[in-house]
Amino acid sequence: MKALVYQGPGQKAWTEKPKPALQQPTDVIVKVTKTTICGTDLHILKGDVPAVTPGRILGHEGVGVVEAVGPAVQNFKPGDAVLISCVTSCGKCANCKRQLYAHCSDGGWILGHLIDGTQAEYVRIPHGDNSLYPIPEGADEEALVMLSDIMPTGLEIGVQYGHVQPGDTIAIVGAGPVGMSVLLTSQFYSPGRIIMIDMDASRLELAKQFGATDTVQVGAEDPVGKVMQMTQGLGVDVAIEAVGVPATFDICQKIVAAGGNIANVGVHGKPVELHIEELWIKNITISMGLVNTNTTPMLLKTLRSGKVDPARMITHRFKLDDILAAYEVFGNAARENAMKVILSA
Ligand code: NAD
Ligand code: ZN
What we know:
The chain folds into two domains: 2-149 and 292-344, Quinone Oxidoreductase, Chain A, domain 1; 154-288, Rossmann fold (3-Layer(aba) Sandwich), CATH 3.40.50.720.
């Protein structure tokens, strides 16, 4: 089969790999019908994620059709259309019982990291029963792909960890696909005001279309001064970091109101400065973590009810065979105005 293979920092190839086979009784082999490229794939390609070694097939988002199931798989059979979760987990261990699927003691593998991923014609999904979801009939497959990672990430680590409440003033720093997913899912909880902060004017414009009430353009405006002015010096109830650099975590520390929450979603490659001396006196709660995809069932329901349409994030479409061209576009996201790129088999 063809697959997108990481070949070491700066190197990748769309090349022939053996079709995956069942290894464990709980495995499912899925024929990938739609997948994407995520910002994390670009980090891996730069060599910023040393845990990913050359030879790895990238990709952790996708939908597909079940090709084969191991003898212990109960929920799926060949021919079933499935949504692939970016995290594979047994569903039975102590951490899985607490819905901490990213910390499954028999997996917790993120596809395209320590095991092969979805940017391929076929993918092996360990613990298929707990790591795949049946696709409801008539569902928009492109919207569903946004439920593999970015939508649960935004909802779980941004909105739920940040305890967004009705009427709250919230700020989201970072208007990439993850920040946009925070923006879309925060609206389930009816915040009164949503301030989107980014340096890219076109992404801020899109954020307004997605429901941001205010935007702040870093570079052109002073984000801290502007947010404090907008909130009469009080700051925001919830500050959500969706970039992963020290400067944006710092903005969150400065704009959070007394008694507020900072929810850190971004993956930080470098240490950040934690200003406990300023935060303690404001009674701030800080949260962070890996997506568990435990909100996927809830997101499937919101999708079905028409409450949210994450497919609005898709700006570019390619055939899976043209994945190298898709990487070119996504790698120059700012120049190409790319938000989410979909690849179809
Ligand atoms: P992205 O790179 O597409 O978007 C980041 C946005 O931040 C861009 O719009 C960029 O213009 C903006 N930005 C960069 N520097 C900035 C600055 N100094 N001030 C203001 N804005 C700035 O990334 P993404 O795919 O949306 O992902 C966002 C973060 O979420 C990444 O760190 C990613 O690794 C992380 N992530 C975390 C989890 C999790 O489980 N917690 C899951 C998926 C992704
Ligand atoms: Zn488990």
